[in-house]
């Protein structure tokens, strides 16, 4: 690693979401509420899908891992962003590298493959989407995302920074860091574009093709109840698709002429904080199994506290 990095850039300054003092307190309160709802919701999904026997299907296996990744990258950014509202906006060199390495895509695509098999091949569903297949899909996605994020992070942090350490963002993202580099950016920009294209285009194609077959299968169903249930299940997924891929396309497919770090900040807030908060709400409000499991868990907790109260 460049000596310049080690001796001069021990930390970066994050410019934050806004430099207007009157907005700091309201934004801190808003993002604290969003982050807390995200943590409670995603932890709830993880615990419910792990403990409840009714939720031991491939769909909920992928949902659990989606909740894990949502919780992971919102926690990698959220607490530090909240701290920076009340103290100086600085981040250490190594924590900045950790933040950059923590973002990944993956389980969304696997969930759509699961729905495709469940609706188009219901008789073979348990055979095709076995526990081993589900674990292999998730493992492949995690390994690829780990490789891609580490490759980009190592490449960037082995290049020379100019000494100017103000990042025009509220966390360490690729584009603001590239702006600070003195070394040639051509190779890392090419790597970033290739990886982003593979992530976005491949996963989006899988989702679109899967849902094309899903809708054809639904239209061929003779049972109105079956069609309604299939549409209800897919409705949650499609809501998530619009939010997830719409934000990503907005972030990474903007022309250079209209690109700005301010629009990146807005899109990043949605991607890092809002979507991880909405995912558990979408699935719990639109899914009877999750609502039933949540109701049973709540009754158990109430019974435990009532028993303790009686003993006291």
Automatic annotation (TrEMBL):
<dbReference type="GO" id="GO:0004984">
    <property type="term" value="F:olfactory receptor activity"/>
</dbReference>
<keyword id="KW-0297">G-protein coupled receptor</keyword>
<dbReference type="InterPro" id="IPR000276">
    <property type="entry name" value="GPCR_Rhodpsn"/>
</dbReference>
<dbReference type="InterPro" id="IPR000725">
    <property type="entry name" value="Olfact_rcpt"/>
</dbReference>
<feature type="transmembrane region" description="Helical">
    <location>
        <begin position="27"/>
        <end position="49"/>
    </location>
</feature>
<keyword id="KW-0472">Membrane</keyword>
<feature type="domain" description="G-protein coupled receptors family 1 profile">
    <location>
        <begin position="41"/>
        <end position="283"/>
    </location>
</feature>
<keyword id="KW-0812">Transmembrane</keyword>
<feature type="transmembrane region" description="Helical">
    <location>
        <begin position="133"/>
        <end position="154"/>
    </location>
</feature>
<feature type="transmembrane region" description="Helical">
    <location>
        <begin position="230"/>
        <end position="254"/>
    </location>
</feature>
<protein>
    <recommendedName>
        <fullName>G-protein coupled receptors family 1 profile domain-containing protein</fullName>
    </recommendedName>
</protein>
<feature type="transmembrane region" description="Helical">
    <location>
        <begin position="188"/>
        <end position="218"/>
    </location>
</feature>
<feature type="transmembrane region" description="Helical">
    <location>
        <begin position="91"/>
        <end position="113"/>
    </location>
</feature>
<keyword id="KW-0675">Receptor</keyword>
<dbReference type="GO" id="GO:0004930">
    <property type="term" value="F:G protein-coupled receptor activity"/>
</dbReference>
<keyword id="KW-1133">Transmembrane helix</keyword>
<keyword id="KW-0807">Transducer</keyword>
<feature type="transmembrane region" description="Helical">
    <location>
        <begin position="266"/>
        <end position="285"/>
    </location>
</feature>
<dbReference type="InterPro" id="IPR017452">
    <property type="entry name" value="GPCR_Rhodpsn_7TM"/>
</dbReference>
<dbReference type="Pfam" id="PF13853">
    <property type="entry name" value="7tm_4"/>
</dbReference>
<dbReference type="GO" id="GO:0016020">
    <property type="term" value="C:membrane"/>
</dbReference>
């Amino acid at each position: 690693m460049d000596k310049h990095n080690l001796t001069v850039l021990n930390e970066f300054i994050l410019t934050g979401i806004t430099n207007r003092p009157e907005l700091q307190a309201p934004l801190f309160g808003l993002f604290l509420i969003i982050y807390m709802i995200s943590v409670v919701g995603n932890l709830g999904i993880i615990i419910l899908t792990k403990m409840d026997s009714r939720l031991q299907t491939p769909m909920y296996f992928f949902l659990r891992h989606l909740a894990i990744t949502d919780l992971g990258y919102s926690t990698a950014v959220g607490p530090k962003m909240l701290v920076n509202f009340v103290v100086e906006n600085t981040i250490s060199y190594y924590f900045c590298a950790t933040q950059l390495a923590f973002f990944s895509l993956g389980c969304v695509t696997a969930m759509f493959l699961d729905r495709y098999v469940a609706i188009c091949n219901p008789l073979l569903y348990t055979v095709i989407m076995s526990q081993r297949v589900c674990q292999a899909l998730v493992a492949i996605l995690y390994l690829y995302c780990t490789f891609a994020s580490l490759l980009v992070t190592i490449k960037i942090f082995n290049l020379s920074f100019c000494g100017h350490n103000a990042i025009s963002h509220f966390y360490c993202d690729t584009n603001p860091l590239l702006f600070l580099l003195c070394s040639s950016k051509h190779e890392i920009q090419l790597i970033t574009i290739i990886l982003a294209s593979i992530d976005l285009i491949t996963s989006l194609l899988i989702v679109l093709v899967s849902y094309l077959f899903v809708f054809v299968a639904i239209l061929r169903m003779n049972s109105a109840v079956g069609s309604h249930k299939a549409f209800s299940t897919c409705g949650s997924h499609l809501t998530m698709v619009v939010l997830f891929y719409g934000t990503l396309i907005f972030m990474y497919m903007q022309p250079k002429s209209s690109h700005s770090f301010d629009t990146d900040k807005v899109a990043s807030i949605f991607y890092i904080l809002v979507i991880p908060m909405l995912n558990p709400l979408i699935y719990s409000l639109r899914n009877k199994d999750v609502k039933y499991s949540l109701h049973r868990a709540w009754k158990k907790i109430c019974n435990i506290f009532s028993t303790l109260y009686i003993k006291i």
